[in-house]
Design goal:
Length: 73
C-alpha cells in the first residue's frame, strides 16, 4: 500500500519507506523512521511527535510551516 498521509502511515504501517527527490532516505518501523528532522526534510513543516494514547502509534502535533517555507512566500 502507498500512503502519502504520514499520520495514517504511522498508524497503520509496519514498515515505512521514506523517499525524497526519488531517493530512499529512511526505512524501517514508523517509531524508528519518523523523526521531527525527517518530517521537516520531507514536508517542510515543523511538528511535535507524540504517542497516540489509544494505539501507541505516532501522532503529529503542533504542525507548523517552517521558516524557510514562509520566507519563500
Amino acid at each position: 500500500m502507498v500512503l502519502h498521509d504520514l499520520a495514517s502511515a504511522c498508524r497503520y504501517a509496519d514498515h515505512l519507506l521514506a523517499l525524497h527527490n526519488g531517493q530512499l532516505v529512511a526505512s524501517g518501523p514508523p517509531s524508528e523512521v519518523v523523526t521531527t528532522g525527517l518530517v521537516r526534510r520531507l514536508y517542510d513543516i515543523d511538528c511535535t511527535l507524540i504517542p497516540d494514547p489509544a494505539t501507541g502509534s505516532l501522532l503529529l502535533a503542533n504542525v507548523r510551516r517552517t521558516r524557510r517555507f514562509e520566507e519563500a512566500c
